[in-house]
Amino acid sequence: MSNEETKKCEYCGREIPIKAQKCRYCYNWVSDEAISRNHIPNSYNTKENIPSINHINNENFMYKNRENFLNSNKQEFKENGSITYNHAFPIRRLFLLMITTFGLYSIYWFYNNSKILKENYGKNISVGVRTFIFTFIPIGNWIVFYYLLNDWEDLIESRGIESFSSPANLLIYICIPFLGLWSIINIQESMNDFWRIEDLNLRTKRSFTNTEIIVMIIFSIIWILLIFFILTLIVFI
To answer: What are the domain boundaries of the chain?
Structure first.
């Protein structure tokens, strides 16, 4: 691994980032007291619970371990008669919604991810106020956008997942407006990695929701009318 501070997984013995709460190799949740790499080897658990090094390096073992984890936690996630999905958001859906709505979908994207931080992870933030600032207040919108990125960066890294750079993505968002979409997509990719581990036994919804379809139809009509208006001006001028 790199020079970053690590600890030993108390279940499989592999080294993981010190902030990680779930092992990226065996998919078990680890405690904050897991042993750092500076401690005595093998003091993190008893020998009976530690697979041999051959097993640890065996891909079939890791695959079966993951399958056992999924099967042991498998259950029907139903709510109001429909499947409950995780929060991962396929990039193609995000891209089409951003393009179709002239980038206005970023407002809902900001609101939704702020709400998740508040309701799911106890962040002491005012979602409505931050969304209002993000939407209407110049310069202030850069500040609240950075806070959102920084909160998510910390949360993603706490799971041992490679994250994005908040300052770099903010600079891209500010200085290169036409690459603002790229910045949001880059951030969403890291979020998707986070949700695939955080909600390991939930599905990702890949199809558009009815609301998204309606929004895309409305904005598509606006696009058509706008293009028709521009062509009309060109012809008569």
So the answer is: 6-72, 82-206
